[in-house]
Amino acid sequence: MTLTNRLSAFFLGFLGLVLVGFSVSVFFLVRNHLYRQVDDRLEAALNVLVAAVEVRRDAVEWEPEERRLHLGRGAAGAEIIWLVRDGAGRFVDGSQPLSDSLLSEMAKAFATDQEAAKRLDLQDSSWQVGQRHVQPADGVARDAGSLVAPEADDNAKRFAALVLTAGVPLLSVEATLGKLGWALAAVSAGIWFFAFLVGRGVCRRALLPVHRMAESARTLDVTDRRQRLPVSASADELEDLARAFNNLIDRLQESFERQRRFTGDVSHQLRTPLAVILGQIEVALRRDRPMEEYQRVLTTVHDKALCLRKVVESLLYLARADHETRLPDMERLDLKTWLTAHLQTWSEHERAADLRVECKGDGPFQIMAQSVLLGELVNILLDNAVKWSPPESPITLQLGRDAQELTLRIIDQGYGIAGEQLPHVFEPFVRAAGTRQHGVEGAGLGLSIAKRLAEAFGGSLDVASQLGRGSCFTLRLRANNPQIAQIQKAETRMA
After folding, report:
1. Three-class SS string for 232-258?
2. Which fold has domain 3-147+156-178?
């Protein structure tokens, strides 16, 4: 099921529930209103009938000749019918014309002691019927069937009690409700169908960029580096999605290009020492040579083999996945004490006198690291500073604290790095300009390994340099001082 169909189904289902709920609510509100009008009209008709009865102390009097009833018409133009019976249920008076069968049905519908309105089916149609009981003022019970004798010159009929019944036909109300129901159903169906057409079109139009991106993704050619997904200028999430995918493709392409360059550089770096080794061996095997010549060849082969092994080991380290370079077995070290001890391994180096240590700030300078790999990292930076600075120029190891981090800066007064080369310093096989001019040897892998080690320790390695003014490599490592951690937690709770 496509996304367009799912969105359309959800939207139309929700709209259908809303329309059904609205239509049912409107129908029942109108229904209650119409029936309330019928009840009000029926109540008014019964009040008129009661007003036409004269209640005396010992009887009730009905004067049909002098008291003409004008009950009007019922709800929606329906005419009201009424019926007057005595206490025994005998017919006294009623609306004209009034069929005997209808009178009989109305008479049977109510018990003589019931006054509540009810809905009845009379002559195959619905009626709202109600009745009232009228008794003498003194409230003395009499024979309900006996007539009270009229006074002299009095033509009015007197009764022991009267039962007044009125009815309003519901045919017009039911017809109105039927029309209303069909109208609501038709309007709701029309709205739903219109929403179906419009909503589906809107969904298709809204998701058209996704369809175009999918089609473009299917036709992307790996050999064409300029192809990208189309970006719609809609300033919405779809545009952001397309740009994110294009950025991902850019990063993947950059990674592929870097991998391609890395592969080419690896081939070159491995080919050079192998060519030298094979060349020296082939020259030595052409004819018999003195022992000193063989020793020279073997020395050259040994040096190139050591260089080749170093390159291979560096490549194997750089080829590891990130999770394989994590260092789980780290220990707490005091960086100042460790650095002083580590520099003792450089005491026999020809530039040992140029190394200087500076400490800014009070200790302790505790970190979590592996001593051996941390030494390898510092050795790489020191070796780089030694190679790229002239003899007898100072190389400063500056230890300090920066917020929650410890910093180790290795500063030389060497040849420096050009500004355009700084972003590529930590890339494999990248070597600064003037390498041959200054006689600097190497494969260009040391700084890449150093940065990888710094990240494995949870820190970072940065460089700042100016051509002809030296370089400064800054190693940042997280401090691991329990006292400082407790103080920071206390300050956080107080804040």
Report:
1. CCCCCHHHHHHHHHHHHHHHHHHHHHH
2. Beta-Lactamase (3.30.450)
